[in-house]
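Hi Y.,

Following your request, here is the sequence exactly as I used it, all 736 residues.
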Amino acid sequence: MLRVKVCILAFVLAVSLCCFTLVVAAAENTNPSEVNALRAIKSSLIDPMKHLDSWDKGDPCTSNWNGVFCFDTVGADGYMHIQELHLLNMNLSGYLAPEIGQLSNITVLNFMWNNIGGSIPKEVGNISTLWLLLLNGNNLSGSLPDELGHLPQLDRFQVDQNQLSGPIPKSFSNLNKIRHLHFNNNSFSGQISTEISKLPDLRHLILDNNNLSGHLPPELSNTPNLRILQLDNNHFDGAEIPASYGNMPKLFKLSLRNCSLQGSIPELSGMKKLHYLDLSRNHLTGSIPSNRLSINITTIDLSNNHLNGSIPASFSDLPILQNLSLANNLLNGSISSTIWQNKSFGPTARLTLDFQNNSLSNILGDRNPPANVSIRLQGNPFCKNASQANINYFCGYKVGGSNASSNSANQSSVCPIQECHYEYVPESPLKCFCAAPLQIDYRLKSPSFSYFPPYEDQFEMYLAESLNMDPYHIFVNFSIWEGPRLRMCLRIFPTYPSHELNMSEVLRVWRIFVTWKFPPNDFFGPYDLLNFTLVWPYPSVAQRSGLSNGALVGIVLGSVACVASITGLFALLYGIRRRVTSYRLLSRERATSSLIKINGVKDYTLKEITLATDKFSGASQVGQGGYGKVYKGILLDKKIVAIKRAQEGSLQGRKEFLTEIEILSRLHHRNLVSLLGYCDEEGEQMLIYEFMPNGSLQDWLSGKISTPVPWFRQMLIVFNPCHNMSFANTSQFFLD
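Below is the corresponding structure, written out as tokens. Let me know if you'd prefer a different format.
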């Protein structure tokens, strides 16, 4: 026995030496100044959800700190370096530490959709490698530091939806590689600098909902690659729209809504790619220019001005027009029915014509427009003298169309619900293919249309091509307009025959979204990633596996010493192997239970579950899906349970299975069954839930019983922010 103890002690010492060597080799892989910067960032932030707890352990690049991504190679200084920092939507508050400027090699800083206050540290301007600066959706205040104008690689600069104030620094004219300036929904003041027009590749200038004033710089028309100019809800008192704005051949969208503008509308026929024009709620006077606008135009909103004269005949030659609003002006004369005639409307197209509160007296031509044309003429002389039929159609108060659209899964109504624990893939070429989707809360910030259904298929195709997927993998589940922005819920499904995306694919899709790797599409415009929600069965992206190449260098060096230390002990250990074999076999069955202890979640033995289900008899089975079968069981204490048994192709690794148990144990909702326990023995993986009585599974899922669905699929519904039309915040798991 003494010899056994000595051998074990020697083995422990050797392993300790090995581990110590590995730790020494790997502990200082990341540049120390960058490690200190991350620790300072953590110290300055308030993290109530404990998303940054992993930052207290090990090395950022070798221990997979949450949200920290490193380069795969070691730098010239012998250290690894931080490449990206993604802390979006983690409910963080506090402030940004000045030490953030020590992340001297970072390319992406992403703090979107938190509650971080304070000012933007001027030290951010020291990061010459920065490519994406994403601070939108916080409580940042103060002015923009001049130093941020000296970031030579910056492509996207988003600080929208904060409380920032002061002028936009003139130094921003030095951002020679910038393509996206998104500063909307702040309190910026002063004039728009004419220097911005010198930015050679600026695509999107979005400054709506601020306190900007002064004149509109004519020089903006010289910005060579500008596609979107959105300045709504500013205060350019007395300013006129420069005539030069009519000579912007690449502009897709011009939106100057509610800007206190005066004067006349300039000739805009030179804007050959213009799709969207909004000059509403200003003080514009004179007549509407008669030359034809771009044939690509979908939306014209000139309402709430002081425009006079007649409706231009050129408005009858706009083939894809969706919305023409001229309400609340001083227009007179007649309306030509050719505006809605001779258009090749598709089944999802819609045309809204709003001419309310003018002095229009007649309709020339056909007074029977198609069903997908909505015409509003209240407050015009026409309605005072019209027949009853015309009053009902043209002068009523019916508002055509809806602000929201929802797509339903066509297959769900013909497929057996009880056989799918996830969701049926709506457009799958294989009928009733059931799979678990990724759920993405997504928003188009400045699209070039006002009605989405005609372009949904095109949009899904665009996303599919960008993600290198087939079109049926992408599905727009729901969309709703929020002012000029279109919010939607996306579903991304795996490829048949897989019922779930593997984690490498989840990570690939996630990185495309968070790093804006989609090919540019000016028609759909820029987007906001509002939330990338990972719920059961997907673990967190932060649990990504694998080490970077640089980390492996240190580990390989340590491994050499480790092998040398242990080799000499193999002969001694072989002699005691048989003595410990029986002990190992005895303890193996309960090894898993020692790895996880969660209040209220029991680790059942395979014997207990086998007895409860009468050896998994067919009579005990109550459901089946892609993951496996579900059985009704009666435990020894007479408790009735539902047992979800994974089939061979759905088995996870032990770590992933235990992670799922931890996640499910936190889910509590009145419409969600509770997890009671699990079993992980002899190649079996089972989850044990409370059993819902009073009807069959099909009755609950089909709605025959008037109670919300209390089953596994409800996990994807209750904890999915996209499912709720109001998009209210719900309990969910982010990328932690």
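The chain is about 20% helix and 20% strand.

Thanks again,
Q.
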